[in-house]
Amino acid sequence: MTINLFQDPISSYRESDTDDDLDNEIVELERKLAAAKAKRCKHPRSRLEGDSSSSSSSPEQPLLAPNLPNHFHLLLSDSALPLGSFAFSSGLESYLAHGHKSNPYHPHTSFAAFLPLSISSYASTTLPFVLSAHRDPSLSNLVELDDAQDASIICTVGRRASVAQGRALLGIWERSFSQSLPPLGSSVVTAAQRGDLKAFGLLVKRGSSKEIPDASAHLAPLFGAICSVVGLSLQQTAYIFLFGHVKALVSAAVRAGMFGPYQAQKILAGETVQELITEMIKREWRTKVERAGQNVPVMDLWFGRHEVLYSRIFNS
Description:
Blueprint: H1 19-42, H2 44-49, H3 52-57, H4 68-76, H5 92-98, H6 111-135, H7 139-152, H8 156-180, H9 191-206, H10 219-229, H11 234-255, H12 261-269, H13 271-284, H14 297-305
Helix pairs in contact: 6-7, 6-10, 6-11, 6-13, 7-10, 8-9, 8-10, 10-11, 11-12, 11-13
C-alpha cells in the first residue's frame, strides 16, 4: 500500500483496509518520524538554536555558557548582600522624629513625601562618583574619587555611613567575589583590574591607623569600580545602586512602623520608584564629580540631628 504523508489520515482510511494494513501503516509512520527526529538532532543549526522539539525528545540538554555580568547583577542587587545598609535609615528616623505632630514647624510626615527627597539627595551626592568610577576603575582614579567624595560630604553622620558600607563592600570583594572569579584569561576581568582593587584595599588597611588615611573607602566609587570589573553596564550599575538605596529606605520604613511588608513590595514594584530612579540617572548621567553635592539641604539637617534623638533604632 502506498503511504501519502500529506494526506488527511481520516480521508485515507478506507473500509477495505484491514487491521493489519492499519498497524503496518502506523509502524511505518512511527519509523519515519523517528528517523526525521534523529536527522534534526544531528543538524548543526538545530544544535545551536536549541530547538524545543529536538531537546524535548533528546535526553541531552544544551549547556548554557556562564554569564559573569548577569550572575553578579543578581549578587549585587540581592538584599542579602552584607553591606550593613539596613542598619541605616538614611535620615528617615530623624525625619519622623522631627516631623511629629507636636512640632509646629513640620506637623505632617509621610513616606511618599520623603522618598523623592531622599532619592534626589542620594543621587546628587553619590551617583556621579559611581558613574565616574565605572568609566575608569583604575587605582589612581579610584583614590582620587574616594578623596573627592570624602571632601564633598559635609555631614559627619553621612560620611560615617558611606565609609562603613564602602568598607563592607571592599571586604565582600576581597573575601568572596575576587576569589570566585574565573581564572585570568577566561573572562573579561583583567589582571590589572584585579590588581587595582587589591592595591586599593591595601591602601585602606595601611591608612586605617593614620589621622588622615590614604583612602577612606566610600561606597559610591567602590561600587562603580567593582560593577565595571565584573562586566555590568553603566546603566545597570546606576540602577542597581539607586534601587539598593530605595530598598534600604523601604526596609527602614517597615521597621519604623510606617507600613507593612506588602505595602513595601507594592512601593518597590510601583511605577513611582521606577520613574524616580530613571529620572535621577538621566539627570546625573553627565554630571562631573566636581559638581556633585547636596541638592536637598534639609537632608543634612535630618542626618546631623539623628545623633541627638532621645531614642533611636538606626545608626543614621
